[in-house]
Structures are given as C-alpha cells and as structure tokens.
Amino acid sequence: MKISVKVLLKSAFGTNSFIPSVNLSFCFMPTQAKPVACMRSVKKSWIEKISIGESSQTRSSFNISTMSSKENELAYEKSEEIFKDWEKLFMSLIQHKAVNALDDGNAQKENETDNETETCGNSKEEVSNGEAEGRWVFALRHGERVDLTYGSWIPFCFTNNDTYVRKDLNMPVELAPREGGAVSYSLDTPLTRVGALQAYLVGEALRLAGITLGSVYASCALRSVETAHHLLMGLQGDPSVKIKVEPGLFEYKDWSLSRGLAFMTPLELHKAGFNIDLSYKPYIDLNIKTSETMEELYKRHEYVMQSAVKDPNYEGQNLLFVGHAITLEMTVTALKYLNKGNASDLPPYKFGDNLMRVPYCALGALRQRQGNWTVVKPPVPPSINTNSARYDWKDLLEVEKKYE
C-alpha cells in the first residue's frame, strides 16, 4: 500500500532555498517490515526556477552557521541520479523482483567454458588441453575517477591561490603539485579513494592467485598511472617492477581534444610518489594538439602492445596494460592480429558493442598457447560497487525542528 504526501525539501542550490512540494511515497511492507520512503524524482523545472533567497522561509531559525551554496552544489546532480537508482532498487525489493548482481545470465555458459579452458589460473602451470599454459597478458581499465563521480569539482576544491582542499571523503587526501595546477587537474583527473581501493583489490587478488608481473605499462593519463600504482601496492610484488608511462595507450584523443589535454611528466609523477620507470623510453610520442583517425588510434595501440609483448627483456614474464575502457578490446585485437602475422586482409578495427559495458577496474586476460594468444577467464573474480550519494547533514535539522 502506498500513501503519497507532499513535503518541503531543502534545495542544495542555496542556503535559503527550498524546493516546492515534492511527492514522497511511503511503501508499506507486509508483516513486521518497516516502511521504506521512496522519494520520487524532483521535477527539473522546479529546480531550474529556484534561486538563492527566493523562498520566504530561511534557515536562520536553526541558529547555526550555514554552509556555502557552492559546497552544497558539489555532486548534487550525481547524487540525484543515484537517488533515482535507489528508488528503483527499493521498488524491486518490495516487489520481490531484485536482480542478483552475481548472476549475469551466463552462469551455465561460463561454467562450461571454465571446464574447457580455464580453472581459475593460479601460479601453478594449469593444463587444459594436455599442454602447459604460457604467460599472461592482462588489460585493465582505470579505477573510479573524480570528475565523473562529482561532475564539476575544481571550483569547489581549489582556493584562489590554487591550493587543493578535500571536500568529500572519497576525494584524494592531497594532490601533488603539477604544472598548470587546478587547470591541469581539470583536464587530467585523479582517482577517487574508492578508485584507488578498486585497483588495490585487483592487485591483491592477483597476489592471492599467485600471479606475478614482469612489466607494467600505463597510459599517460593520471588515473591510469594511479591505478597501476595501487594495483602494484596490492600485488606486493618485486619493487623493481616499475610503471612504464606509455602515451600510446591513451584513449581516443578526439574525445578530449576540444577541451584540451594535459599530462604529468614521468618526473612529476615520480616526485608525487609513484614508482615510475624513469629510464623507460615510450614507443609513441603522442601529439596532444592534433586530431587522429580511428585507424591511427588502433595502430598506435597495436604498435605498443605488440612491441611490449615481443620485448626480449621480458620474455616468458606476465605483462599488464593499464589504460581505459578501450584498452581491453584493443589488447585482444592487437594480439589476435599478432597471431595472424598482421595480415592485410584482417577486418579494420572499430569500437565494439560492449565498450560502454566496461566498468572501472575491469580486467581482461589473454594467455599464450602454442604460440598463439587466446582470451581466457581472468584468474581473479570481478567486482561490483553500489552507487553512494552525498549525505546532507542539514537533513537532520528537519528532525531537530520537530522537537523545538
């Protein structure tokens, strides 16, 4: 049974603003379950009409200092999107239609594939078809990024003298000095704390599976370098295995070219505390001022990945590419081309249909068998994280007001 009421909700757009009446549905569960409040989405038109000081009702009666409107706006839109997702989840639970996140609909197929090809790839040489397994090549997307988590975050987190101030617990505790300061960070986002943890967990899982790495290549994007760094922290492997910053692994330039690109130098990254291989000479010198075609995007990835795999200095050792959502399928394509001797009659590269289904820290794996590279199940399980919105402590003032 649902009972709909209209309430006043505080707006995150100003210290004195209130959103007009908003529908709130209380969904009463059977038996002894407590009611769950499912807030329906606030109409965008209402929000657009609100300005600071518009409402005659103010918070002065609460007798506390108010936060700045700018801080209230941080991640507001992202939080609203998450609240909508939560409502859907609550409703699915109420209707007993909750989806099991561990069941992707391919469980039977996956089990059959496991029996045929991979168990769970540990440190011992597994035998699937009567032959010992060869080296691993892994491809990993970076972890959760600050800009896509909070939206416009720079105005909230940098003072007029370009000093970084953390405004949310999921943001980095500190940011290293870099050329361009806040402007450069706006073009080259860091990871969130959750993003760092995601990467650490992948490294930890590889360690528990007995996997070692001989070389680690990371896109020049800060989020990718940080991901590689935290993965190696979780791996707790040989400290001599340093991060090779490779511009050729950066994603499609044209996605970011209109707003500009900015990357930290290997020396800046080293001074920031990352274990960077300062002696590494990149395969690609990426021009961040010019556009590129899809074919050029693929060719630079192909050149980097095939060159790294064929590097005699790391023969027989496992290898990791840390980059972006496209990195996983780029790795498969590049190594499959290598299997075929880069024949000219192979189909041209194009983005796959599943590109938007690559989550943060998604791990892909290939293994060498009889000289050929084959996609296999990674030796570690995947992970999933729920969305979490920002909590506004001032919501408790509404509770307190009832008892005054």
CA-CA gap between termini: 32 Å
Estimated helix fraction: 25-40%
Number of helices: 13
Rounded average pLDDT: 78
Determine the strand fraction and express it as a percent band.
5-15%
**Order of the strands making up the biggest sheet:** 6-5-7-4-8-9
Class of secondary structure makeup: alpha/beta
Largest sheet: 6 strands, mixed
Low-confidence stretches: 1-68, 115-131
User: What string gives the helices and strands in order?
Assistant: EEEHHHHEHHHHEHEHHEHEEH
> What characteristic shape results from the CA principal axes?
globular
Strand tally is: 9
Report on the structure:
This protein is an alpha/beta fold. The chain has 13 helices and nine strands. The protein has a six-stranded mixed beta sheet with strand order 6-5-7-4-8-9, with helices on both faces. A three-stranded antiparallel beta sheet has the order 1-2-3. A hairpin with a 2-residue loop joins strand 8 and strand 9. Helix 8 packs across helix 9 and helix 11 packs across helix 12.
Quick description:
With 404 residues, the protein is α/β, with parallel strands linked by helices. The chain contains 13 helices and nine strands.
Topology diagram in text:
Layout: E1 2-10, E2 18-27, E3 36-39, H1 44-49, H2 69-73, H3 76-94, H4 107-116, E4 136-141, H5 146-150, H6 154-157, H7 181-187, H8 193-208, E5 215-218, H9 222-235, E6 243-245, H10 266-271, H11 294-310, E7 319-323, H12 325-339, E8 363-369, E9 372-376, H13 395-401
Parallel strand pairs: 4-7, 5-6, 5-7
Antiparallel strand pairs: 1-2, 2-3, 4-8, 8-9
Helix pairs in contact: 8-9, 11-12
